[in-house]
Design brief:
The structure is a homodimer. By secondary structure, chain A is of the alpha+beta class. The first copy, chain A, has 2 domains: 2-78, Glutaredoxin (3-Layer(aba) Sandwich), CATH 3.40.30; 88-196, Glutathione S-transferase Yfyf (Class Pi), Chain A, domain 2, CATH 1.20.1050.10. Chain A contains 8 helices and 4 strands. Chain A has helices at residues 10-22, 42-47, 67-78, 88-115, 124-144, 153-168, 179-188, 192-196, and strands spanning 2-4, 29-31, 55-57, 63-65. Chain A has a 4-stranded mixed sheet, with helices on one face. The radius of gyration of chain A is 17 Å and the shape is globular. Chain A starts with a strand and ends with a helix. At the A-B interface, strand 4, helix 3, helix 4 and helix 5 of A face strand 4, helix 3, helix 4 and helix 5 of B.
């Protein structure tokens, strides 16, 4: 398999943490990319119409985009349990994943606001709206720490979202007032899959 | 079950088309909302930290957000087949869904650019980048029409994405040069689930 990747993409990290947890990382050849919301990457576009990372090219040549789809594909390929079977555990893991992914989407929108347009075109109200979404999700994660499962696609997504905030939004100080979440990430970050993708 | 909805949200429509296909629509009580990326809706926020639609409140009180998670939950609840079992059909359906959802995300970003910020804060380059993503996805859909399955979460997502372009971006004229996709949507739109949610 081949994966269009970017070293700082949090969604690529989700895929690679998943691959490491499943013992599949060595089977994935990483291809460089220069994806961007305004200036697209023609090589990635030739493989998949969304021209985004992560995009996985299967051994048969089909391309699939979107970290959720790729992670579930890898889990099935490895016969893994990162996606629980249908039932309460699955909906909890998928809801955690979608909430963590939404934090990343909001964080990326703020980052694009600051880097992909002229200063005069920035909207503080827009960035504040995205920031409010991040804050309420973080507050909710703090209440959920005791109920989190072990390693599944939800907790992987959560760890990658928090790791991205540390990478790009260190000034946010998300740990303040959220000691349980901070301790949870410190523990989860010790995993070999997280260390290999830091 | 209760669903925070908005009558023009394409992701809500995805959920409701799914519910109609599964015979579950009558079991879903719809709750009004006023979600917005800048001014949030406190009632939806009290149920789920993302404060977005669709958000489904299960009979046990748990809330799940994100149309992908909600659609899969409903499919499992009804013992449906809208999410094929793991295998090539599933990855094709999920990849189609993620591509159609990405068209909606791009279309919504253009719409927010035009409605949720001052005219001086708009970026034509940003909107052009989103528009290019929509165009390449539409071109790819046109090539895939012959390979599409019947009714699954992928084709439902595709129909809702195209329906939203008709609602908000009629000037785009997406049917031009894409006769197969246009004919496919005309046929799919005859379904009772699509008519009930138009």
């Amino acid at each position: 398999m081949k994966l269009f990747h970017s070293p700082t993409s949090p969604f690529v990290r989700k895929v690679m943490v998943t691959a490491h947890e499943l013992g599949l990382a060595e089977r994935i050849e990483r291809l460089p990319s220069a994806v961007h919301p305004v200036t697209r990457d023609g090589q990635v576009l030739a493989a998949h119409p969304l021209a985004q990372v992560p995009t996985l090219i299967l051994d048969g040549g089909e391309a699939i985009a979107d970290s959720r789809v790729i992670c579930e594909y890898l889990d099935a390929l490895a016969g893994g349990q990162l996606f629980p079977a249908p039932g309460a555990a699955r909906w909890a893991a998928l809801n955690l994943q979608s909430t963590a992914d939404a934090v990343l989407d909001a964080a990326l929108l703020i980052r694009y606001e600051l880097t992909a347009r002229a200063e005069s075109e920035r909207s503080q109200a827009w960035m504040d709206g995205q920031g409010a979404k991040i804050a309420s999700a973080l507050d909710w994660f703090e209440t959920q720490v005791g109920a989190l499962g072990g390693v599944d696609v939800g907790t992987i997504a959560l760890a990658c979202a928090l790791g991205y905030l540390d990478l790009r939004f260190a000034d946010l100080g998300w740990r303040e007032g959220r000691p349980n979440l901070a301790a949870w990430l410190a523990d989860f970050s010790e995993r070999a899959s997280m260390r290999a993708t830091a």
